Amino acid sequence: MDTNSFLQKFSQFFDLKHRTLSLNGKNVDVFFLDTMCSSDKVTQFVVRPLIEMKEPLSAESLVEKIIFGADCKTESDFDKVCDEFLDGKTIVFVEKENDAVIVDTKTIEYRAVAEPPTSRSTKGPREGFNENIKTNLTLLRKRLKTENFKADSFTVGDKTNTMVAVCYIKGTASDKIVKSITEKIKTIKTDGVLDSSFVAVYLDADKTTLFKLVGSFEKPDVVASKLLEGKVAVIVDGSPIVLTLPYTFLEDVQSPDDYYYYTPYTASLGRVLRLISMIIAVLLPAVYVALQLFHYQILPSKFLITVLSSVQGIPFTPLVEMIVVIILFDILREANARMPQIAGLSLSIVGAIILGDAAVKAGLLGAPAVMIGAMSGIGLYSMPDNTMLFSFLRLCFVLIGGLVGILGILLGVMFVVSYVVSIDDFGTPYLSPLSPSVKKDKKDAILRKSLIDLNQKRNADLSLRGKETKQ
């Protein structure tokens, strides 16, 4: 292989290290990047064995008898050699040899395994994924000690050459779904993949839907449970977020803590509260506006008097007032999410308490509107992954309620429900197991049964899949 071409291609790299050794009448060139490789590893596993060697010099002999690197191989394709070099490998060229020797000596610092900030758990494991794909695979293999756990790797991105692993349990996951996901990843054509969200865009079966169709999780215990259910996980190097498919709406209602409670009643109560919070967050502001504009006569007299006295003198109509409140709370949420952690608490106090109280006292906003907007904003965080989606739906329903009234809200709810029912992700209905109804899967839908019942359900599913495979 031409050493000069390789040196010319990477001569502008400031961290390029090159050493030429004269051994047994042949020149041996060693290349590595100082910022991605360990100099000690290169010295110990590559240079020192080369100097001390007594065997006939060839690329095969270096791999088989000389170089001590655990991951060592030969490669004759020049482009692949360059890709491995950019990935942090050490390249060894032997004069008049067509093959180059590739040795894994890279050392890159990664964030330690810790509890993820967005998926905290009061019970259960505290570990979370980090940006190293090998670490993430290790966290999954530690929990799934079976030969049926498979991880197929691919390289995506013309310039980033990012490693992507498709993980599943053979015999549990559907072969059809695994093949479909694999084909979608192979067809990704882009310059770079910097995060799992880049891959999620290509895996989304219906890119026109408002609802997300790809799950994203940061805890290995959660992803392991998804794999046991027959789902497929996609790990992207450089991202702490692992994707799971197929994805259903009820996965947002469920929480990892639901499976670590001793009794199923507390877990079921938590799920019901999340659903109620979601409904309140989306519909309460719209219902309030509709009642004020079109249906105030159905309000109790005392409550109606309280509302009228509170909104007296407000310069805005109820519709405009609620839209202003919603936009103000959304601005505060966005600012708080991007502010430094120390200043975030101060921003919340100033924005939510002082600004809201001042607006009410100044007569710009009514106290009921501010209270309902705050309740709605809190309810959005019951399903944090869908905060922006529910915020958008909330604004749409407020406009419908302010223009049409309760009838319009009911029609809007019917439209959203029928739309969600029609969504299909890799052959899995989005509202499964509620629509269509799957009785055995309802044991872990909204109301959770005991872990014994869930294990019996899982064993029955695996037995059924085993019979189908044999057939």
What would your notes on this structure say?
The protein is of the alpha+beta class and 471 residues long. Helix 5 (133-143) packs across helix 8 (220-228), helix 10 runs parallel beside helix 15 and helix 12 (318-338) packs across helix 14 (367-380). The protein folds into three domains: 3-103, no CATH class; 133-247, no CATH class; 264-425, no CATH class. It is elongated. Mean pLDDT is 80; it is low at 459-471. The strands form three sheets. Strands 1-2-4-5-3 form a five-stranded antiparallel sheet, sandwiched between helices. It has 17 helices and twelve strands. It has helices spanning 3-9, 39-52, 59-66, 78-86, 133-143, 175-186, 196-203, 220-228, 250-253, 264-293, 301-311, 318-338, 341-361, 367-380, 387-403, 406-422, 451-470; strands at residues 16-23, 26-33, 72-75, 90-94, 100-103, 149-156, 162-169, 215-217, 232-236, 242-245, 424-425, 428-429. Helix content is 49%, strand content 13%.
Summarize the structure.
With 471 residues, this protein is of the alpha+beta class. The protein contains 17 helices and 12 strands.
DSSP, total strands: 12
Q: Output the radius of gyration.
A: 29 Å
Shape: elongated
Order of helices and strands: HEEHHEHEEHEEHHEHEEHHHHHHHHEEH
Largest sheet: 5 strands, antiparallel
Share of helix, binned? 40-55%
- Please, what is the average pLDDT? 80
Low-confidence spans = 459-471
What class would the helix/strand composition place it in? alpha+beta
Strand content: 5-15%
Structure annotation, total helices: 17
Quickly count the domains. 3
Could you tell me how far the N terminus lies from the C terminus, measured between alpha carbons in angstroms? 51 Å
Strands ordered across the widest β-sheet: 1-2-4-5-3
